[in-house]
């Protein structure tokens, strides 16, 4: 199977739009930031995360905590699909139990790129001038100051933010419902065979319902100790797949370096909904079943 992509009105305070605040770029955002408060749109989709091996929590928080969690995906965009504000202020995610979580600033596709542990990098993504990579949309919020993926609780979730603009605030709210029978994709696995030149073949044993996967390659910090992939360094490359096999081009990885591969399977447009691929003000965030579900593989250790 082939690699899918190899890369290279909300009428609030409309008078503020007359301020003619120019577009600019920011190192924590995706693309050009547009000051368009009269047309800002906040979106939310929810689903589940199957992190049976604890690999995603390790990448996101530094500690592997296996389990099933809530997946919340958000966009905050202006009409052209870019981030609506240079700084939205911290948003709040409220669960059906009334438990609240803070997210920090929201941009065109989730939080500051890297907050959730997975960024979009070449070869699937273009090089981002922010020096970090592109956001991948799903949120890692915090509860009582501790970053954590929330537990799975059916019901309505509300994402709200009061954006500070010109001495005032613009309130924005989005809702999404997690059904009682929300799907759990189940654990998947990933393996890698090097071509000896910094690339190779990625193989994923996919699970029912999965429509795509993003495979992230991290430096294996734990390789110097007793347990490979017990600690992750910087992400080095990311590759989107829609089938069971994909090709990481030669030169993507460094010779002699130990790596850990993490496959993140999705039943929604995980890659396509974000920059640089989507320029829609309100991209589709949920899959065919109405939820946005992820499955994280166990980490695969190898030396290039």
Structure overview:
The chain starts with 23 loop residues before the first strand and ends with a strand. Helix content is 2%, strand content 37%. The chain is built from one helix and 18 strands. Residues 1-36 have low confidence and may be disordered. The chain is an all-beta fold. Strands 3, 4, 13, 14, 16, 17 and 18 form a seven-stranded mixed beta sheet that branches. A four-stranded antiparallel beta sheet has the order 6-5-9-10, with no helix packed on it. The protein has one helix at 55-61, and strands spanning 24-25, 32-33, 41-51, 67-77, 91-94, 100-104, 142-143, 146-147, 155-165, 168-178, 189-194, 200-205, 212-220, 232-241, 245-248, 258-266, 294-296, 300-303. It is globular, with a radius of gyration of 19 Å. The chain folds into two domains: 14-52 and 74-178, no CATH class; 189-303, Sandwich (Immunoglobulin-like).
Observed structural traits:
single chain; 304 residues; mainly beta; Immunoglobulin-like; 2 domains; 7-stranded mixed beta sheet; 4-stranded antiparallel beta sheet; 37% strand; globular; disordered N terminus
Structural class given helices, strands, pairing? mainly beta
Secondary structure: number of strands: 18
* Mean of pLDDT: 88
Spans of at least 5 consecutive residues with low confidence: 1-36
Number of alpha- plus pi-helical segments:
1
Molecular shape: globular
| Radius of gyration, whole Å | 19 Å
Strand content is 35-45%
How many domains is the backbone divided into?
2
Query: Could you tell me how far the N terminus lies from the C terminus, measured between alpha carbons in angstroms?
Result: 23 Å
Main beta-sheet strand count, sense and barrel state: 7 strands, mixed
- Compressed to H and E, one letter per element, the order equals EEEHEEEEEEEEEEEEEEE
Provide the helix percentage.
under 10%
């Amino acid at each position: 199977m082939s690699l899918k992509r190899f890369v290279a009105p909300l009428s609030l305070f409309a008078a503020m739009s007359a301020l003619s605040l120019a577009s600019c770029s920011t190192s924590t955002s995706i693309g050009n930031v547009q000051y368009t408060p009269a047309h800002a749109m906040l979106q939310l989709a929810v689903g589940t995360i199957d992190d049976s091996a604890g690999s995603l929590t390790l990448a996101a928080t530094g500690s592997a905590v296996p389990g099933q969690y809530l997946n919340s995906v958000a966009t905050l965009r202006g009409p052209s699909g870019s981030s609506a504000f240079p700084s939205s202020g911290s948003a709040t995610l409220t669960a059906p139990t009334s438990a609240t979580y803070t997210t920090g600033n929201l941009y065109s596709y989730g939080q500051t790129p890297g907050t959730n542990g997975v960024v979009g990098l070449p070869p699937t993504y273009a090089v981002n001038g922010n020096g970090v990579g592109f956001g991948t949309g799903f949120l890692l919020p915090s509860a009582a100051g501790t970053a954590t993926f929330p537990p799975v609780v059916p019901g309505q979730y509300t994402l709200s933010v009061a954006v500070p603009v010109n001495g005032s605030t613009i309130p924005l709210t989005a809702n999404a419902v997690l059904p009682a029978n929300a799907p759990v994709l189940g654990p998947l696995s990933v393996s890698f065979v090097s071509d000896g030149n910094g690339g190779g073949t990625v193989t994923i044993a996919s699970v029912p319902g999965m429509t795509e996967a993003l495979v992230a390659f991290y430096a294996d910090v734990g390789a110097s100790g007793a347990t490979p992939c017990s600690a992750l360094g910087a992400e080095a490359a990311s590759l989107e797949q829609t089938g069971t096999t994909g090709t990481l081009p030669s030169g993507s990885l460094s010779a002699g370096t130990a790596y850990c591969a993490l496959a993140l399977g999705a039943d929604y447009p995980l890659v396509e909904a974000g920059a640089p691929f989507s320029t829609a003000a309100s991209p589709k965030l949920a899959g065919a079943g109405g939820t946005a579900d992820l499955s994280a593989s166990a980490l695969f250790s190898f030396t290039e």
